[in-house]
Amino acid sequence: GQNIDQPTEMTATEGAIVQINCTYQTSGFNGLFWYHQHAGEAPTFLSYNVLDGLEEKGRFSSFLSRSKGYSYLLLKELQMKDSASYLCAVMDSNYQLIWGAGTKLIIKP
Amino acid sequence: DGGITQSPKYLFRKEGQNVTLSCEQNLNHDAMYWYRQDPGQGLRLIYYSQIVNDFQKGDIAEGYSVSREKKESFPLTVTSAQKNPTAFYLCASSLGAYNSPLHFGNGTRLTVT
After folding, report:
1. DSSP strand E in chain B: where?
2. Among A87, A99, A104, which would you mutate to test the B interface (most chain B Cβ atoms within 10 Å of its Cβ)?
3. pLDDT per residue as tens digits for the range B61-112
């Protein structure tokens, strides 16, 4: 079966750095997406990785290792507004998106 | 501003009634999707449409129906045949390429009692 694993919940301090991991076992691979979602609102696109390596976009960076079936989202200089759920999704060989259950990130002052 | 509008935000229905959730987009996107989000689970695809007048079943289509008569609109009907209809429903659209990010609406929370 296909599977995406993410930690259920993480806590971090305002101003700090946090890394949210995502591991996947899927039928093929055509890219990995990260979204964030505030409670009761729309998920919003953060990043897309299809090649190995690190993609940096402001305070957010996303890393991919296809050989390890592993990605992480790195958030720097955390702000209270970063409190949200972070969703990892992998596109498989049939171009279907497989979603993780999401990681709820709690930022404390 | 372009975006996706879902209405209503909250919907309450009695068991046995059909209910239709609205989704409208003005992004000129070809592809539209309906997902269901339940606590502790990843998003699950109900139906998707790549072009007007055509749509495909997703992983959990049973008990649901859709139509795509206009590019901008992709309404979802939750029928009485859906065993556990209470959930948060998200509509999304994209340009249609496999690496195109999804743009989501703010969702409709449906409660059936």
Report:
1. 4-7, 10-13, 19-25, 31-37, 44-51, 54-57, 64-66, 76-78, 87-94, 103-104, 108-112
2. A99
3. 999 999 999 999 999 999 999 999 999 999 999 998 888 999 999 999 999 9
Task: Find, among A51, A55, A57, A5, the residue nearest to A30 by Cα.
Answer: A51
Nearest to B107 by CA among A39, A79, A45, A109: A39
CA distance B16 to B81: 8
Residue among B42, B101, B102 whose CB faces A4 most closely: B42
CA distances from A64 to A25, A35, A84, B51 (A): 14, 15, 22, 32
Specify the residue for token string 């729309």: A42
